[in-house]
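Suppose a colleague, Dr. K., hands you the sequence of a protein chain of 230 amino acids and asks what its three-dimensional shape might be. Before reaching for any lab equipment, you can write down a predicted structure in token form. Begin with the sequence itself:
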Amino acid sequence: MPLNHPNKHAVTFTTIFRESNVDEFVIGPTKTQALQHGFENIFRYHPRLPYTLIRKIVPAGIEYRKFKRDPITRKEIQELGDHLEILGIRIKGELAKIDIDETLPIIQVPPEKLIKRLSFHPLVKEIESEPLDLFKNGHFNESVRRSAERFETTVQHRAGLNDIGKSLMGKAFSGLKPLLPLNNLKTENEKSFQEGYQFLAMGLMGGIRNILVMVTKMKGALKNVMKCCS
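The predicted structure, expressed as tokens, is then:
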């Protein structure tokens, strides 16, 4: 799991520490040094907080490793429990109950012809890097989600807004007084184009970006429900 990420919606070590208002401890020239400094201060000033942080970090790390197609193993979880116990954090029982799926996700990569077409298509720089690489490797949902998030971040910066999702797009591309006009807005066609783009952008946030995030969460929830009912 990364220490930081430019996407403010990404789960990182820093965001997890920030939820407990202790992200100021996570400083250092490298990821290892930053985490070492962070946990040293947590143990020194907030002796009960390590339990909370570990309970958040472990499931987030499992999801990250699954995304990277390197699923975490039961052995690694057991070793983590042993190391934590040496530090006085006794949660081996909790870790043992975590549902671990060690199977490698099946990925179907897109046809070579489609990859070539996309590679030669004039994509914007925000899309032609990580999102395109994700698509090439068969991570279709994640590719679209990352693209939508980058579009959202770009609109925030250009419009000078802190809103997110549909609200952001509604204000930024509003057909009446848009912060980001796409044309001169003089003719009816120009006004209709602006309004249409506004609705498309809002639909992208509500019907694609949010849905893909929810699908990921629902998969985990449904798996737990099926386990309880079996």
